[in-house]
Design brief:
Chain lengths: 278, 397
């Protein structure tokens, strides 16, 4: 039995029942049983709410992120768990430190199969899209008209410094990483982009700009650093798309079966019929 | 540094605005009349000119320092503050480097005083932590004469501060960009495995190896071949263990996540003073949040983050040290462990306020039998300490 506690406003009340640790159920159909149970209220400061909010953050970035718009959750206000986590959180656009208002999201973790990525639905109260069209167009034109291909490395550097001209490419890496992090998240992960080893602009013939990124992700739960190679495209009209992604395992981590070498993520999503919506 | 030029003082004041930002409780410079402002500036100028050239003022606390610079700084702290600062080597790392603390407190003719322990940098990549230990020492020394409470605490207590516990790991992270995110110690792997290093914060004799660890030596939460396999963990265990009667509080500093973690790392084991730890912890995170508006959360590790075992925090509580906390400083994932240098000051300011609340409570409980955390008292202390911090920071330019 669960004790459901009522949360008023922004005051938190600690749950009295011990948290049930997440575990892959061995009984098929357990998801259906759990769906019939009442919503278990989550403490917004506890990790199940934090991890679900991080997944919602990745989802928002895949939808709305750009070199000038990079989103992060600034505080979970309310959270509940049935099969899915329902949460309310304040959203912030991080490149300008701009408050974007309150979002409500549902994050469905597939407990029966951890390899299935979480499903997210999300609506936000404030004006979701920041007006970045001028900067995006400016950057796009500069890169299109440049005589040489751009590249960069070690972002941020050891002391956390980022050259201002590199900042949009840091944000771009963060947004592109969100596609991977969204896919790779489960109830036992809390993923962030830790570092861009390097990125290189690639030749393209069409309107999209293309970049190869070598990125390090950090999982707070295992404390591991995960190396990914991404091929991504961007244009102001086309948005950010990850074309190819490859995990670079060190031999000793080869047993982590759920982290797979993937290619053509965008195509895969189209084939599956994207279930995520806002 | 041009200490005594009026223009520099004025420029600095203009940039700083000399107002305390954040929770809206601040005082704006513009509130003072122009005569008042002139007087204040004159006072600051006089303070600037009278400032000595001591290391606590001249060292760059808002930059990250490699180990040799930190060691040199520690040496200077001792030399420039006789009777107040001493140091001791209390262990040796795997690669045979000294592990050293600074002991801050008024020397009471060699009498063994009650004490508070703080260690930083148990995880190599968490650079803001050693930066905070250095900041903490600086703040305590600067406030010794100006802050009555700090003065009282330095008389009654000794503070053992280890700026870098995992010296080998910290030095490794300074080699180049590819080593920057190393976390563990640098000990050689066991025979059956090929990667170096043990997670020092899983290696302590506290429910060792039971939960939240990896047995794979290549993983970042590898707990070691056995408890206390690592000399760094042994060093803390021996020193603190021998003084567990005197040590009132154990603080261990990490990044990131903006959390204050209480014992224990096991989801079904609770400290007997859980309520008190929570009450003091809540006061601490409130104080931290009020400095720059950053949200910190308090709770046990299994609640806020993940279960774990073998942590130094758990071990300290288990041997009877009543107050034991892990600080996880900024940020929440945007920069992660690579916190930019322009955030060192605000991160340290808010962490200092949190530590201050805990230390003051622990001190007052021991010496005045006082266990209330009055809101008024805290606000007054906060105002005093922020004013002092603003002044002292300005003196550093």
């Amino acid at each position: 039995a669960h004790t459901v506690l009522y949360i008023t406003g922004l005051q938190f009340v600690l749950k009295l029942t011990p948290h049930t640790p997440a575990a892959s159920p061995s009984v098929p159909g357990q998801e259906d049983i759990q769906a019939a149970m009442p919503v278990e209220e989550l403490d917004p400061s506890h990790y199940p709410a934090t991890r679900a909010a991080k997944v919602a953050e990745h989802f928002i970035n895949t939808r709305y992120g750009s070199p000038f718009a990079w989103f992060g959750s600034s505080g979970v206000k309310k959270a509940g768990l049935e099969v899915r986590a329902k949460l309310h959180f304040t959203l912030k656009e991080m490149t300008r430190n701009q408050d974007m208002g309150l979002c409500s999201a549902e994050v469905l973790f597939h407990r029966a199969d951890e390899r299935k990525p979480p499903q997210v639905q999300c609506t936000c109260s404030g004006a979701f899209q920041v007006n970045t069209s001028a900067e995006e167009e400016d950057l796009y034109q500069r890169l299109r008209n440049a005589t040489s291909l751009l590249s960069g490395s070690d972002i941020p550097n050891s002391v956390g410094h980022i050259d201002p001209e590199m900042a949009p490419f840091w944000h771009l890496g963060g947004v592109a990483s969100s596609f991977i992090m969204l896919r790779e998240s489960n109830e036992s992960t809390l993923l962030n982009m830790a570092h861009i080893d390097n990125f290189t602009q690639m030749e393209t013939k069409d309107a999209q700009l293309m970049f190869q990124y070598d990125i390090l992700l950090h999982d707070m739960v295992s404390q591991e650093i995960l190396k990914w190679k991404l091929l991504l495209s961007w244009s102001p009209d086309g948005g950010v798309k990850v074309l190819e992604a490859e995990w670079d395992p060190k031999c000793r981590s080869c047993e982590r079966a759920h982290l797979t070498v993937t290619t053509g993520i965008a195509a895969e999503q189209e084939m599956k019929g994207d279930n995520n919506n806002v | 540094m041009k200490w005594c030029h009026v223009r520099d003082v004025l420029d600095f004041n203009r940039h700083r605005g000399f107002f305390i930002d954040g929770a809206g409780d601040g005082v704006k410079f513009s509130m003072f009349s122009s005569a008042g402002r002139a007087l204040l500036l004159l006072l600051l100028l006089l303070l600037d000119c009278a400032a000595d050239r001591s290391t606590e003022r001249n060292y760059e606390y808002t930059k990250y320092h490699p180990m040799p610079e930190i060691s040199a700084w520690m040496q200077q702290m001792v030399e420039e503050n006789p009777g107040l600062v001493s140091s001791e080597v209390y262990g040796t790392t795997y690669e045979r480097r000294d592990i050293m603390f600074l002991k801050i407190g008024v020397d009471q003719d060699g009498v063994q005083k009650k004490a508070i322990w703080m260690d930083c940098g148990i995880h190599a990549r968490e650079w803001i932590a050693p930066a905070f230990c250095q900041w903490f020492v600086k703040e305590m020394l600067l406030r010794y004469k100006t802050d009555k409470k700090v003065g009282e605490m330095l008389n009654n207590l000794d503070f053992y501060v280890t700026p870098v516990l995992n010296v080998d790991g910290y030095m490794y992270t300074w080699i180049n960009e590819s080593t920057r995110l190393w976390r563990k110690s640098r000990s050689s792997p066991p025979e059956s495995c090929s990667c170096p290093g043990v997670d020092l914060n899983r290696n302590f004799y506290a429910n060792w190896g039971m939960i939240g660890v990896s047995r794979n030596c290549c993983d970042n939460t590898y707990c070691g071949a056995k408890a206390l396999s690592e000399p760094e963990a042994r060093a803390v265990t021996e020193f603190v263990g021998n003084r567990s009667g005197e040590i009132l509080c154990y603080l261990t500093i990490h990044s990131a996540g903006q959390l204050l973690l209480m014992p224990y790392g096991h989801p079904q084991i609770w400290a007997p003073n859980y309520d008190e730890l929570m009450r003091v912890g809540q006061a601490a995170v409130r104080a931290m949040g009020s400095v720059h508006g950053m949200e910190y959360r308090v709770g046990t590790s299994p609640d806020l983050l993940y279960p774990n075992s073998g942590s130094s925090r758990d071990w300290a509580r288990l041997i009877g040290i009543p107050f034991s906390y892990t600080f996880e400083l900024r940020d929440k994932g945007q920069f992660g462990h690579k916190l930019p240098e322009d955030q060192i000051q605000p991160a340290c300011e808010e962490a200092f306020e949190g530590a201050r609340v805990i230390i003051t409570y622990v001190h007052d409980k021991a010496f005045h039998n006082r266990t209330d955390i009055g809101a008024a008292g805290m606000a007054a202390a906060l105002w005093t300490s922020m004013l002092a911090s603003c002044l002292t920071t300005m003196l550093l330019v």
